[in-house]
């Protein structure tokens, strides 16, 4: 009884406070007031700059996406990840819709929530218009949501950046990047996560405007091998995906590579583990 | 009695609708335009409960415009048709449903193809090479089945349309006197005289 009395008092106090003092909102939602340094985004951006690198390159006839997986320790059981997840996806590259693949850098749990939102937004568009969601519209949907966390009460923003690689009728192949504040931008080639500065300056040197998917794949893998910590690339550290047009149906075809396919690709590009490396170890 | 036709051709769609507005047994008006230009490459011919038709077609027009303003591109005919069908299906399950039948004719500028969708007040939708609503449809559909040519030029399409109009004039007891005819193609929409 006493407790409920006290609660009532507090409740009344809160109401009267709202009437007397207009700064009450400021007191409750500390996170949402502007600070001179913009600390919250510094933290969010910081989380992203330590995350595994995600790299995207837009080509004339497709988009290529690659991501670095951070292996957290020797004891982590990776036997389940051998086959890859749905469509070969792992922890950083996901199918958002049949015409869009997403790569994430940052807090994995936050990213999972964003991916869930993106998939559901894409299906809502399909339900309303009976067509695949345009890539920019999907990026906009997510950014509208991300932005809301910069403005409304007491919550922290998402600690994740996304790359969207996709295709739509209107603008063909596209590559977008969105950050925790809800800003998004379109790119010919870009990179998020650790070492993104190095990767971006490499891409700036190597990118050609009329690049084709085949060359884009080489460019992505080459840049990836230079920016990643480890000396040799392998499927245990790398995720890879390409979106192209199916030559027969003329519809977008998203392919997220399975671990064995990644190793095969690395071998073909001459970036994989050498046979003698294994021999030396044993 | 309300009648409308639509015929696809090689790179255009011709839409025709009668221009009578009637109430009970009285002709109130003979210059009523029942084909609305809902977006630059999209025509909507409608019939049904007077009032509902105007209200619903303006609702569609405004929503398509809003989509364009928000996203800086127009919905393609198939996407617009799906949205309209959905609106009607939702309305059907409300307290006071719109009682509107329509045909949506659009030119898809991304693929350079004409598309025609037949939609009724129950939310039925189908993409067709030619279509008709109202009493005229009982006479025109068999004619169109015989004479429609998807590769026809605009002149040939108009000829086929005239056959339909003449047949309805000949056989229907209360046939409409005048029609308005519009065309949608790569250049947008326009009214034509026949």
UniProtKB/TrEMBL annotation, chain A:
<protein>
    <submittedName>
        <fullName>Nucleophile aminohydrolase</fullName>
    </submittedName>
</protein>
<comment type="function">
    <text>The proteasome is a multicatalytic proteinase complex which is characterized by its ability to cleave peptides with Arg, Phe, Tyr, Leu, and Glu adjacent to the leaving group at neutral or slightly basic pH. The proteasome has an ATP-dependent proteolytic activity.</text>
</comment>
<dbReference type="InterPro" id="IPR050115">
    <property type="entry name" value="Proteasome_alpha"/>
</dbReference>
<dbReference type="InterPro" id="IPR023332">
    <property type="entry name" value="Proteasome_alpha-type"/>
</dbReference>
<dbReference type="GO" id="GO:0005634">
    <property type="term" value="C:nucleus"/>
</dbReference>
<dbReference type="InterPro" id="IPR029055">
    <property type="entry name" value="Ntn_hydrolases_N"/>
</dbReference>
<dbReference type="GO" id="GO:0051603">
    <property type="term" value="P:proteolysis involved in protein catabolic process"/>
</dbReference>
<comment type="similarity">
    <text>Belongs to the peptidase T1A family.</text>
</comment>
<dbReference type="InterPro" id="IPR001353">
    <property type="entry name" value="Proteasome_sua/b"/>
</dbReference>
<dbReference type="Pfam" id="PF00227">
    <property type="entry name" value="Proteasome"/>
</dbReference>
<keyword id="KW-0647">Proteasome</keyword>
<keyword id="KW-0539">Nucleus</keyword>
<dbReference type="GO" id="GO:0019773">
    <property type="term" value="C:proteasome core complex, alpha-subunit complex"/>
</dbReference>
UniProtKB/TrEMBL annotation, chain B:
<dbReference type="InterPro" id="IPR035206">
    <property type="entry name" value="Proteasome_beta2"/>
</dbReference>
<dbReference type="GO" id="GO:0019774">
    <property type="term" value="C:proteasome core complex, beta-subunit complex"/>
</dbReference>
<dbReference type="InterPro" id="IPR029055">
    <property type="entry name" value="Ntn_hydrolases_N"/>
</dbReference>
<dbReference type="InterPro" id="IPR050115">
    <property type="entry name" value="Proteasome_alpha"/>
</dbReference>
<dbReference type="InterPro" id="IPR016050">
    <property type="entry name" value="Proteasome_bsu_CS"/>
</dbReference>
<dbReference type="Pfam" id="PF00227">
    <property type="entry name" value="Proteasome"/>
</dbReference>
<dbReference type="GO" id="GO:0010498">
    <property type="term" value="P:proteasomal protein catabolic process"/>
</dbReference>
<keyword id="KW-0963">Cytoplasm</keyword>
<dbReference type="GO" id="GO:0005634">
    <property type="term" value="C:nucleus"/>
</dbReference>
<keyword id="KW-0539">Nucleus</keyword>
<dbReference type="InterPro" id="IPR001353">
    <property type="entry name" value="Proteasome_sua/b"/>
</dbReference>
<dbReference type="InterPro" id="IPR023333">
    <property type="entry name" value="Proteasome_suB-type"/>
</dbReference>
<comment type="subunit">
    <text>The 26S proteasome consists of a 20S proteasome core and two 19S regulatory subunits. The 20S proteasome core is composed of 28 subunits that are arranged in four stacked rings, resulting in a barrel-shaped structure. The two end rings are each formed by seven alpha subunits, and the two central rings are each formed by seven beta subunits. The catalytic chamber with the active sites is on the inside of the barrel.</text>
</comment>
<protein>
    <recommendedName>
        <fullName>Proteasome subunit beta</fullName>
    </recommendedName>
</protein>
<comment type="similarity">
    <text>Belongs to the peptidase T1B family.</text>
</comment>
<comment type="function">
    <text>Component of the proteasome, a multicatalytic proteinase complex which is characterized by its ability to cleave peptides with Arg, Phe, Tyr, Leu, and Glu adjacent to the leaving group at neutral or slightly basic pH. The proteasome has an ATP-dependent proteolytic activity.</text>
</comment>
<comment type="subunit">
    <text>Component of the proteasome complex.</text>
</comment>
<keyword id="KW-0647">Proteasome</keyword>
<dbReference type="GO" id="GO:0005737">
    <property type="term" value="C:cytoplasm"/>
</dbReference>
């Amino acid at each position: 009884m006493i407790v409920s009395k006290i609660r009532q008092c507090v409740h009344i106090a809160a109401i009267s406070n709202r009437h007397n003092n207009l700064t009450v909102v400021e007191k409750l939602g500390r996170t949402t007031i502007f600070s001179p340094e913009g600390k919250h985004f510094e933290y969010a951006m910081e989380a992203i700059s330590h995350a595994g690198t995600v790299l995207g390159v837009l080509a004339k006839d497709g988009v290529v996406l690659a991501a670095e997986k951070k292996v957290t320790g020797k004891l982590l059981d990776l036997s389940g990840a051998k086959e890859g997840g749905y469509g070969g996806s792992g922890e950083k590259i996901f199918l958002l819709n049949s015409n869009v693949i997403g790569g994430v850098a940052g807090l994995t749990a936050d990213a999972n929530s964003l991916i869930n939102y993106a998939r559901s937004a894409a299906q809502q568009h399909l339900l309303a218009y009976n067509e695949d969601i345009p890539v920019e519209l999907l990026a906009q949907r997510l950014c509208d949501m991300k932005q809301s966390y910069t403005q409304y009460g007491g919550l922290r923003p998402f600690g994740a950046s996304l790359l969207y690689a996709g295709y739509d009728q209107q603008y063909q192949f596209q590559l977008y990047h969105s950050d925790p504040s809800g800003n998004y931008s379109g790119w010919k080639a870009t990179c998020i996560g650790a070492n993104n500065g190095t990767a971006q300056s490499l891409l700036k040197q190597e990118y050609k405007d009329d690049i084709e998917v085949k060359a884009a794949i080489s460019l992505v893998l080459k840049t990836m091998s230079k920016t990643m910590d480890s000396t040799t690339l392998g499927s245990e550290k790398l995720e890879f995906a390409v979106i192209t047009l199916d030559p027969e149906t003329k519809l977008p075809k998203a392919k997220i590579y399975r671990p064995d396919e990644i190793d095969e690709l690395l071998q073909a590009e001459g970036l994989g583990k050498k046979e003698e490396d294994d021999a030396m170890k044993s | 009695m309300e009648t409308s036709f639509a015929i696809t051709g090689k790179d255009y769609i011709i839409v025709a609708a009668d221009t009578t507005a009637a109430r009970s047994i009285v002709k109130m008006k003979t210059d009523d335009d029942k084909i609305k230009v809902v977006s630059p490459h999209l025509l909507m011919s409608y019939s049904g409960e007077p009032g509902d038709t105007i209200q619903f077609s303006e609702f569609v027009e405004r929503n398509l415009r809003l989509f364009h303003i928000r996203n800086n591109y127009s919905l393609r005919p198939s996407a617009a048709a799906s949205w309209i069908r959905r609106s009607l299906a939702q309305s059907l399950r409300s307290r006071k449903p719109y009682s509107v039948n329509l045909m949506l004719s659009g030119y898809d500028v991304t693929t350079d193809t004409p598309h025609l969708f037949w939609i009724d007040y129950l939310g039925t939708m189908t993409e067709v090479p030619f279509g008709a609503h109202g009493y005229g449809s009982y006479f025109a559909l068999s004619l169109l089945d015989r004479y429609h040519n998807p590769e026809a030029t605009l002149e040939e399409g108009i000829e086929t349309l005239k056959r339909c109009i003449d047949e309805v004039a000949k056989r229907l007891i209360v046939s409409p006197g005048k029609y308005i005819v519009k065309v949608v193609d790569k250049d947008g929409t326009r009214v034509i005289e026949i």
